[in-house]
Amino acid sequence: MRALALAARRVRKRMMMISLLYVSRSALPPREQQRALDEIVATALRNNPRADVTGGLVFTGRHFAQNLEGPEGEVTALMERIGRDPRHRDVDIVYRESIPERQFPVWAMAYAGPSTFVAAHVLALADPAPPAVRQKAAKRLIGLMRQFAEAHRIARERESGRPL
Prior knowledge:
Blueprint: H1 2-14, E1 17-26, H2 33-51, E2 54-59, E3 63-71, H3 72-84, E4 88-98, H4 119-126, H5 131-160
Antiparallel strand pairs: 1-3, 1-4, 2-3
Helix pairs in contact: 4-5
């Protein structure tokens, strides 16, 4: 069984990897947001490693923005499930590209809590704009998500007493 899992992982690594960023409107009532976010993150932490998917999530209270990366088929299947998820409305893929390596290599799902700081960046993607403007805004948001994930990783290492 273990040999089969390792072989499957090697095959997935040879497949084309993509990075995808979507923005959606939240359908969550304020009183249910924290419970639902905890559930989303727990599900991602449980399922994403099996699918070889990594990424980061931002929630502004009104919108989700999530960067997913991994084998194209796995990311596409995950996006289909997200598109059917009643917690999301108006799911819009704002950025998609083939990638040679991951931006979130150690994160099944990087999430450090609600962020009002990035709300303006998410809103810029939620509104219609020319493709070049959206692509630039998407890359900027992915960069911010990476910075948050790295800062969170460093804080966790400091708290645990492990060396950086």
